[in-house]
Amino acid sequence: MLRSIAPALIVLATPAYAQTVSPRADGVEVQAGSLTLRVTAQTDAILRVRIARDGKFPEDASWAVPANVRAKSVKVAPLADGFATSSLRVHVDPATLRLSIDDAAGKRITADLPDPIKLDGTGFTLRKAMPVGEQYFGLGDKTGPFDRRGASYVDWNTDSFGFSPATDPIYKSIPFFVSVGGAGGSYGFFLDNTWRSWFDFGHREDGTLAIGSANGPIDYYVIAGPSSADVVRRYTDLTGKAPLAPRWALGYQQSRYSYMSDAEVREIAAKMRQSQVPLDLIWLDIDYQYRNWPFTVNTQTFPDLKKLAGDLKQDGIRLVAITDLHVAAAPGKDYAPYDSGTAGGHFLRNPDGSTYVGPVWPGPAVFPDFTRKASRDWWGTLFKGFVDDGVAGFWNDMNEPAIFETPTKTMPLDTMHRIDSDDFAPRDASHAEIHNVYGMENSRATFEGLKKLRPNDRPFVMTRASFAGGQRYAVTWTGDNNASWEHLKLSVQQLVNLGLSGFSYSAADVGGFTGGPSPELLTRWYEIAAFTPVFRVHAAKDTPRTEPWADGPEHLAIRRRFIEARYRLLPYLYAVAEQNARTGDPIMRPVWYDYPAARTAGCDQSMAFTLGRSLLIAASPKPESPRPYDICLPAGGWYDYWTGLPESGDKLSETPALDRLPVYVRAGTILPRQPLTQSTAQVPQGPLSLDIYPGEECSGTLYWDDGLTTNGATLRQTIRCTQTASGLTIDFDAREGAYKPWWNGIAVTVHGWQGGAKIKGTTATANDAARTLSFTIPDQPRAARVTVSRQ
Predict the structure, then answer these.
(1) pLDDT in tens, 547-604
(2) Could you tell me if 320 and 256 are in contact, meaning their C-beta atoms sit under 8 angstroms apart?
(3) 267 catalytic, yes or no?
(4) Measured between alpha carbons, how far is 60 from 52 in angstroms, rounded to an integer?
């Protein structure tokens, strides 16, 4: 029993071994036998826990948490068995190193089980209590149940072509989860370890949350809430926030493996415009290259890439090209990436020092050493030709890394990397240590290279494999999914969990990559994807076409209508994306993120999500079924997005119809929208629309800029509304920023209104059937109030 905290060092004797407790200004350090536990308060609500074997802590370095973030800490108040911050109470049993964490009111957040740390050679297991009421989310785009409870997972980036809803592992390793429903509120857990690791949520042992790794440091963070939003924001404080993407990345995107020629790309673009389907991006998969060699172009089929990119851009369409990381091993073939990479020593090595060569799309291939800064810098220079040709973004695929003709699907674990980067001490490292961060460092090299080549532009990079913190460099997608109803449902859950895991910009191949969707499945997928962060249609070779017109005019009309809905919503979507860049709040969220009571509302919400806080999308939890299903709306009032009419209750019954996806707007929302355009490059013609859905805390945000650069002028404005006995007031805050918007006027529609109204300086039109009041006012760049008086 620890009797005093006054001495700087306290030694307690037990029959087994001595314990040493050392209070620190920012936490506590406890030694028990050969183990030393150090808990430090990074902030009042974020704790870092490190455990040293034999009293020696591993190197304090990380690929996920930057050095300047790890260096932060706050002073703590000592307790008899630990310490306190303003938010937390930390307790350590010095005999067992058993750790428990409470909130300031004494409610338990998380606690170790007895025998909390087990060592097995170079590996370890941490054992924590898993209370009955807790649910667990996150871990990126893992398959399995939406709630991770009762399942177990391995973090090992794996090329999982045609994965099933039960396949694990797949492409990414994001060792972070969010716990919801505990006595102390929501908390997060992040294991900062790049080796093969695993999470078991009571699968092998009931009531036990077990976390372990085959090797590497015992280094983790506990992130307190109490809300899930608090946890996610603080996790992105640690690992970084996704930068605001170029606005065109939010538009509709068309892809296929592959569009085989310049002529086919032009045909797709022309048909999109002829069909009046808005489009911002066309993707080029590997067949645009010469013999699948990265950073080459097959000039037989793509004779002038620069002209193609320029012509498309004139029509408001940008070109994104794939650049896999496997460089063709082509000595003596005048292949610049291989020749310059070899000359610079930029490729991975076998244990004997020779260059590692493995088969991928080009045949024999070599692999850049992305954990070296010099190699990342070299990689970035390879994009210059494409950038000069006007290619707008780049797609890093196969970067788990995927290797053909091997049962492991990747390179040998003894392949050698050179760490020479960040605050790591320079050293060699095995692929077993680097494997899970290899794809992230590949996308980092691409991102940083584009920043150097186009310093003022926002880079757009998509990656398949990544690790915690990879959101700083790239958007992602869920990989080679299947054309099935179960994969449509899985895609929603994957994207929501990616958002909770820091990857706010995410996509799933609409329609499924393998197989071929039925017309109804493809249309349903279009409808749901229109409200997801990245909207890309993509399919494999030898599969049915999945362009919007593929299944005839009826399906084209529905798909086009949902694409158009997305483009009209761009002012709202862009403001949500900018909020994400500042706060880390996901773009696509589980309903309970902003409405915690929804988690236990009684409806199956496995296909429900919100876009930002204000739009709720409620697809059927059994999307293949025509049977009615229940929709639970959070308390506070909601409006049907399509009709604008207020809903009369919190529980609705919906009968599926092919041309309808239930979408609702929170009462108290001021929703900005714009006139329809055919791409984000087109300037909308007409006024900005503000749809006002009266309710409590009524507000909305305008954010706009040029959509392209990182240092240009911006516009930000908050708008509020208040219901009064005589009508409604609309208050415009003074606009921040110098950006001049495209609109000169504002078309206001007040929903849930009955009767006429009087507004100074303008005429209002009431529609009693739609329960709307509409009027137009000049733009309001300065603080202003508009009063709507009932007649």
Answers:
(1) 999 999 999 999 999 999 999 999 999 999 999 999 999 999 999 999 999 999 999 9
(2) no
(3) no
(4) 11
At which residue do the structure tokens 């999945």 appear?
546
% of the chain with per-residue pLDDT over 70: 98
Annotated catalytic residue within 397, 433, 441, 585: 397
Angle among Cα 444, 450, 456 to the nearest 5 degrees reads 120
Pairing of strands 714-724, 663-666: unpaired
Of 3.40.47.10, 3.40.630.30, 2.60.40.1180, 2.40.50.100, which CATH number belongs to 686-790?
2.60.40.1180
pLDDT of 1 reads 27
Q: Where in the chain is the domain with CATH 2.60.40.1760?
A: 10-239
Q: Where in the chain is the domain with CATH 2.60.40.1180?
A: 588-658, 686-790
How far is the C-alpha of 680 from the C-alpha of 666, rounded, in Å?
Answer: 26
Annotated catalytic residue: which of 81, 112, 369, 400? Answer: 400
Q: For 737, which DSSP code?
A: S
Which residue in the list 103, 287, 441, 480 is annotated as catalytic?
480
The verdict on whether 547 is a catalytic residue reads no
| CA 44 vs CA 343, 484, 584, 591: distances in Å | 49, 46, 18, 27
pLDDT at 12: 32
Q: Is 736 among the catalytic positions?
A: no
pLDDT tens-digit map of 257-290: 999 999 999 999 999 999 999 999 999 999 999 9
CATH number given to 588-658: 2.60.40.1180
Q: Are residues 449 and 477 in contact, defined by beta-carbon separation less than 8 angstroms?
A: no
Q: Topology of 10-239 in CATH? A: Immunoglobulin-like (2.60.40)
Q: Is the dihedral of CA 482, 488, 489, 495 positive or negative?
A: positive
Whether pTM > 0.90 for this model: the answer is yes
